[in-house]
Amino acid sequence: MNKNAIKNFAVTARVTLIQAVTQKAFEYEITADGKNDPAQESVNGQTLTAAERSQRAQLIERIRANGFVQTMEEAAYTWFNRFIALRFMEVNNYLPSHVRIFSDENGSFKPEVLTDAVNLEIDGLDKALVLELLENQENERLYQYIIITQCNALHEGLPEMFEHIGGWTELLFPKNLLREDSVIAHMVEDIPEADWQDQVQIIGWLYQYYNTEPKDKVFANLKKNVKISAADIPAATQLFTPDWIVRYMVENSLGRLWAEGHGKPEHADWKYYLEEAEQEDAVRAELKQLRESYREIPPEQIRIIDPCMGSGHILVYAFDVLMDIYTACGWSERDAAVSILRNNLYGLDIDRRAYQLAYFAVMMKARQYNRRILRGENQPNLANFADVMGVNNSMLSGSLRQFVEQFQFADTYGSLMTVTAPAGLDEMVAAFHPTIGLDEVQLKAMVKLYKILSQKYDVVCTNPPYMGSSGMNAVLSDYVKKNFPDSKSDLSTCFMERCGQLTSQNGYYTMINIPVWMFLSSFEKLRKKIEVGNTYVNMVHFGRGIFGSDFGTTSFVISKRHINAYTGVYRRLFEKQGAVDSVDQKEKWFFEGMGYYTAKQENFSKIPGSPVAYWVSDRIYSAYNYAPIGDTVIPRHGLATSDNNRFLRRWFEIDFQKGSLLKKCDFTKKWYPMNKGGAYRKWYGNLEWVINYENNGEEIKEYAIELYKCSSRTIQNTQFYFKKSITWSALTSGALSFRWSDEGAIFGSGAHSAFADENILLYALGLMNSKINDVFLNVVSATMNKNVDDIRATPFIAPENMISIVDDLVENCVCCSKEEYDLFETSWDFERHPLV
């Protein structure tokens, strides 16, 4: 698949289509800052038809509700979605007419519908009008008419993708589509036809790449402290899941549910299915009982949901796995496809665009198995939250109003929201009469969302949205703090809890996620909550590279049942912490058996913080019987200036008397030594910075109060300033290096420090710089940031007869390191180069 071609097309198509629909709006005298009179009967000297007046009024109403820019965006992506759907259908010969819309049989940009327009058979096509347009050689108008007619003809079987065109979107149909540089010309010529034959891949990548520019804009605004709005959440959080990872998740959840009760279907090619580890007798007995219950589930009763379905990748592969299951039970593919649509698959998303593409992808997968399935009665159980927005409930009363009010921020909360319904909801809907601000379609959409959200599912499988708490708008931030206090730091971890809530007892939930929840102390309660009532079945820990180099990922399958002493299977697909390896390389390692581990989750609680340290040996576990180093050594966060350019200098940039910096009694009046991290260096060094701490930090504290209303938020642990300490760089992609710091220095937020009685400080430095400490640190934190909680957890083993011996060795290391550091001019104690 040529992803560069797909990306270039999608990014360019978005810009081109926005310009095209904006130009069409301008031709109807509708602009961003214009009068935009809906009663206007003529534009540019031309009298409008009744249909045009109606469409123009609809467009103006839409602009007044959503804004001009947002409406043009909506029109552009509506046509983008329709064009790529038609292209997919023509390449795969799924169009009812079997005549190509955009190309000829050779794949060239030469629409067959124009060359064969006289014989064209499309429901609703006015052949007299076609002949008239042909006779007048109005090819552009004819082409527009055929495309719109074809879209409307597809409405009955694919109503959610091809909404009936007759309103304001028809008014904004892009012009000049027959030009050699048009959007559809590039779609045909730039993307190979073979890429259109794998619907999930092409649709998913087109959707993600279409959002490239909006996503870049969102993250640029975040740097300016502009929070992510509800409208921008889809662009900011969407990441397309690589195909083989989707297969791993679905096969090891949906496939496992069936296989453990019935065995794997003989014809199923489940290459990513991880076989269970050897279990103890008691565990095998409990599993046997559990699997008896799986044996009773018929295919048509299995429910699987993707609550963040995006463009439908997971649901489409789940369709294939379900087809394996159905046919193993003797179903025909035609009947199975209908049943899967009606009974098995459920999906939700906040983005209307993604919803339409997911809907289309699922329907095309069904069409692959049943060529007559595109009918109104065969519709999947998919829904989107955007359909219920903009409702005015002021005309409602009683329990119906309370029900509707729950959807006020549906496009922000998405599947995180829970909805309750009054008794007799269906009767209430049947008796409902449309009111100002709420119509029957919106109400039924709410009921559909409620029913999907209130059910339990045998399998929940998703790639959740990724958004840290710092990017959340106030509405979303308040909601997750209230409803997901143990996972509130990121939307993706909130969805870990939500997926568990949606899963039925004895079911499975699986997802790909950022791995910080496995280690950080802020997620300790989440880990304990998961481990109390659930069981880790297996996990693939990818490291960095799945979604680029920005963050690592892990994927896991969890059983909604706690099985004591269960041995899970874990795969570690990276060689070095922080390394960025390609998706293809990780898949290769998966098949080669790299990084295979087994672990009992009960062992995780033996380690402080209960990290998911699946690779730890029994000997490491036993070491945690000793008291942690945090009981003896006090690690602390340092000072954050909030403006390094203002408050920090290199030591050689200031005026001071030689040799005074590390002698407290000779301090200058303004500048003080500052430990600020730096490159890898053990024992001593990286003393390059000084900080303005004049008059006990008067200026820097005033600045902190100005920013944060108090200084203690950033000027922390002042009681430890100027004391002897051990310091280290908090952020590193490799091993940590700990250094001795004499009295007289302040420590910064990038160089945490640890303090202890002098009789044990040297020994502690020796332990912290040891190889075994690297092992312990990677147990409690497999991230690149080693904070003070990670340091506290290392077991502290200090035999009395060894302390003085280690002290001498460490002191010698510090002295040697200092002598070497002072040989260079970057040290403030430099006197003369040794070669001079």
Describe the protein's architecture and organization.
One of its GO terms (biological process) is DNA modification. Keywords: Methyltransferase, S-adenosyl-L-methionine, Transferase. With 836 residues, the protein is of the alpha/beta class. Among the domains are: 225 residues, no CATH class; 193 residues, Adenine-n6-DNA-methyltransferase TaqI, Chain A, domain 2 (Alpha-Beta Complex). Helices cover 43% and strands 11% of the residues. It has 31 helices and 19 strands. The protein has a nine-stranded mixed β-sheet, sandwiched between helices. Strand 1 and strand 2 form a beta hairpin. The radius of gyration is 32 Å and the shape is globular. The protein starts with a helix and ends in a 15-residue tail after the last helix. The mean pLDDT is 90.
Average residue-wise pLDDT: 90
User: Gap between N and C termini, in Å?
Assistant: 62 Å
Q: Using the alpha-carbon principal axes, give the shape.
A: globular
Query: Strand order of the main beta sheet, please?
Result: 5-4-3-6-7-9-8-10-11
Number of contiguous helices: 31
Low-confidence stretches: none
Write the layout of secondary structure elements.
Blueprint: H1 3-27, E1 42-43, E2 46-47, H2 50-66, H3 68-91, H4 112-115, H5 127-135, H6 139-153, H7 168-171, H8 183-190, H9 199-210, H10 212-222, H11 233-237, H12 243-262, H13 281-295, E3 304-306, H14 313-328, H15 333-344, E4 345-349, H16 352-369, E5 381-384, H17 398-405, H18 410-413, H19 425-430, H20 440-454, E6 457-462, H21 474-483, H22 491-502, E7 503-513, H23 524-533, E8 535-545, E9 548-559, E10 567-572, H24 583-592, E11 596-600, H25 618-623, E12 634-636, H26 644-647, E13 648-650, E14 671-675, E15 689-692, H27 694-708, E16 725-728, E17 738-741, E18 746-747, E19 753-755, H28 758-768, H29 771-780, H30 788-792, H31 800-821
Parallel strand pairs: 3-4, 3-6, 4-5, 6-7, 8-10, 14-18
Antiparallel strand pairs: 1-2, 7-9, 8-9, 10-11, 12-19, 13-15, 14-15, 16-17, 16-19
